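Quick illustration, no need to memorize.
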Amino acid sequence: MRRYLVVANQTLSSDELVEVLHGRAAAEPSEFWIVVPATPVKHLAARAVPMPPMPVMGGVLSLPGTREEARRLAEEKLQSALRRLAAAGAKADGEVGDGDPMRAVEAVLSRRQFDEIIVSTLPERLSHWLRQDFPSRLEHRFRLPVTHVEATALPSL
């Protein structure tokens, strides 16, 4: 049985990621553990979060969002993905992790073993994780093969 750690947030429901996971499951017996970092709302791509109205008389536009809101959004994405994978016959479970994706992965790897890490990101022009070279840093730090899946479009919530 191959064990995969899937790391995704905004692209967890992307067609590209779902296709990769279905391909892995069809090729051999597989199980997936999904970690969804509780990304702070202010770091989410703008089209994925409803924007508050612009202030009338100056001021700074800021996205509302507490840690609880970030965890709630991440949990919703996780549960939706788990239902979708279960409907496709894949064995999957997961958790909401730290807002820092590296810490979220580190926490999971401290108690579980995997054969591969699959990282799903926004398109390069929008991806904070790619600007941080997250997939390469994961591979270097944890010495596991890392597959990077880039969404071609920003999924809606």
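DSSP finds five helices and five strands in the chain.
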